Amino acid sequence: MKIKSQRDFWSGLMFVATGVGFAWGATNYSFGASARPGPGYFPFGLGILMAILGAFILFESLAVETEDGEPIGPWAWKPLITIVFAVALFGVLLPRLGMAAALPILIIITSLAGDEFHWKDVLINCVVLTIGSWAIFILGLKLVIPLWPTFITG
Questions:
Q1: In Å, how far are 10, 22, 33, 116 from 74, measured between CA atoms?
Q2: Which is it for the CA torsion 115, 120, 121, 125, positive or negative?
Q3: Mean pLDDT of 13-18
Q4: CA atoms within 13 A on the CB side of 148
Q5: C-alpha torsion angle, residues 132, 133, 138, 139 (rounded to 10)
Q6: Quick check: pTM over 0.85?
Q7: Partners of 37 in beta bridges
Q8: pLDDT, tens digit (0-9, with 9 covering 90-100), for 36-81
Q9: What percent of the chain has pLDDT over 90?
Q10: Contact 56/28 with Cβ under 8 angstroms?
């Protein structure tokens, strides 16, 4: 069988592997019941849906002919390293600086990974995402996430 789209083939394979991994990992948790789902219920269902989506993409890559085979280009190292660094830094800064400072730092650094950087857009994203995250995670879900730096609250 010939691969007719390399991009679809590898992305479909990634979706299948990730979905199966999440579904398999969710089997270590209680499923509960449909009326009262346990902690394994959602990740298992999401993993199965992701694997099914990946299977469709994988099938399409083998069945639908493309003009040039859609080869995979070179790895984009700068965005990959920048985003991984920003997420790791966010994990280190969140307990110390709180969400109000760590999240804008994450957004600014990850914005540098792209080809286009506009301060106005980045600052709007910082404000909207920080307020939205505060409303969802701290107000709505009542998660214990520090909002302000420890040197202000402590």
A1: 14, 28, 46, 20
A2: positive
A3: 96
A4: 4
A5: 10
A6: no
A7: 32
A8: 888 888 899 999 999 999 999 999 988 887 777 777 878 889 999 9
A9: 67
A10: no
First to last CA, the chain: 63
What type of residue sits at position 54? G
Give ∠ CA 9-11-17 in degrees, rounded to 5.
100
> Do residues 23 and 55 lie in contact, with contact meaning Cβ atoms separated by under 8 Å?
no
DSSP string, the chain: ---S-HHHHHHHHHHHHHHHHHHHHHTTS--B-SSSB-TTHHHHHHHHHHHHHHHHHHHHHHHS--SS--------HHHHHHHHHHHHHHHHHHHHH-HHHHHHHHHHHHHTTSS---HHHHHHHHHHHHHHHIIIIIIIS------S-HHHH-
Q: Which tokens go with 75?
A: 């790895």
* Side chain identity, residue 113: A
**pLDDT at residue 32 tops 90:** no
pLDDT confidence bin for 154, thresholds 50/70/90: low
Length of the chain in residues, anyone? 154
